[in-house]
Design goal:
334 residues, alpha/beta, Nucleotidyltransferase, domain 5, 2 domains, five-stranded mixed β-sheet, 44% helix, binds 5'-O-[(R)-(carboxyoxy)(hydroxy)phosphoryl]adenosine, binds zinc ion
């Protein structure tokens, strides 16, 4: 069966639209990032984010319609992120998707943002099941055992902060701006000195804990009156080194407990070059999405939507009871 799916992503601070075909090829994709808008606050301001989604979503939709009219006219269904995320941001995407589905009389497919991140690894390569899916983003840190895109279990998660959240907090106290990941990664790559031995909590356990490490870094910074540029770089590089060691140990522990043939690392933090290098030490092959599909994007939403569509799952006809009731939710519950 051939199909063309439009994906909409607006759960946090990226507005994104993509069109994916039934061979899972991304035939059109544009993401508009709001980092400029939130940079001065050191993190995402929900109210500002939803307002920007309203203007950006319709700007991108207009571009798709005008520049790729043949794709726009051929769309069979709209897949949209409905959870988890910032509620105001999600609502903009869900309302736009419902309106499009109703006005064009096409189906609607609700997508879970974290499952879409997992699917990102399959956009460019075929993964055989079961595999371990490691989701490391700004809001979530978890390891899943993936039997199928419709059947997987969470085997480990963070008991407190997400890895991306810790990156952003550390970058904020070091005055490196938002988002923190890319700048800390660059510093870590260029650093050749010794590392500060920051604590690595919950060693030998599958679950993660980031708040102790985050607090240790913040205390270290605040306890020194002024940190020179070199010392700031040492703190940033030591933080990333601790995170990379933690990630490798946790995932290796998970592989020992749940033998699998491959691991997929996804989510915003999977763009980290140090993490990509470190994970090559795992005892099984590891895959990462292209950089474009690591941070929030609609290609992964349209991709998973296509998988559901082709498997006859989650398809909501416009005007049906499920369609009318469909709403956004901030909950990460699967
Ligand atoms: O998946 P994502 O775009 O949004 C959520 O669903 O949360 O992830 C955003 C997070 C931010 O915390 C950002 O600092 C982090 O991903 N990030 C990185 C890198 N690029 C983005 N973290 C580490 N290294 C990077 N290169
Ligand atoms: Zn995300």
């Amino acid at each position: 069966m051939s199909a063309l799916l439009l994906g909409i992503e607006s759960s946090c601070d990226e507005t994104s639209l993509a069109v994916v075909n039934s061979r899972y090829e991304v035939v059109w994709h544009e993401t508009s990032s709001q980092t400029d808008l939130h940079a001065e606050y050191g993190g995402v301001v929900p109210e500002l984010a939803s307002r920007r989604h309203i203007t950006e979503l319709f700007r991108l939709l207009k571009r798709l319609k005008e520049k790729q009219g043949h794709l726009y006219k051929g769309i069979d269904a709209v897949a949209v992120t409905v959870q988890p995320g910032l509620i105001g941001s999600l609502l903009v995407g869900v309302e736009a998707a419902k309106s499009l589905a109703l006005s064009h009389n096409i189906s609607l497919i609700p997508v879970h943002h974290l499952k879409a991140h997992l699917f990102a690894a399959s956009l460019e390569q075929k993964l055989s099941f079961p595999f371990l899916g490691v989701i490391v983003s700004g809001g979530h840190t978890l390891i899943c055992l993936v039997h199928s895109y419709d059947d997987f279990s969470v085997i480990a998660q963070s008991r407190d902060d997400a890895v991306g959240e810790a990156y952003d907090k550390v970058a904020r106290v070091l005055e490196y701006g938002y988002p923190g990941g890319p700048v800390i990664d660059r510093i870590h790559q260029q650093y050749s000195g010794n590392y500060i031995p920051f604590p690595q909590p919950m060693k030998k356990k599958l679950d993660f804990s980031l708040s102790g490490l985050k607090t240790a870094v913040v205390r270290y910074v605040l306890s020194s009156n002024t940190l020179g540029e070199d010392e700031k770089k040492r703190v940033a590089a030591s933080f990333q080194e601790t995170v990379l060691n933690m990630m490798l140990e946790k995932v290796q522990l998970a592989i020992r407990k749940y033998p699998v043939e491959s691991v997929a690392v996804v989510g915003g933090v999977s763009a980290n070059r140090g993490l990509r290098r470190k994970m090559q030490q795992l005892s099984v092959p590891v895959v990462f999405p292209s950089f474009e599909y690591c941070t929030d994007n609609a290609a992964m939403v349209a991709g998973l939507g296509t998988w559901y569509f082709l498997h006859g799952l989650k398809i909501m006809k416009p005007g049906s009871a499920g369609f009318l009731k469909l709403n956004a939710s901030p909950s990460p519950e699967f």
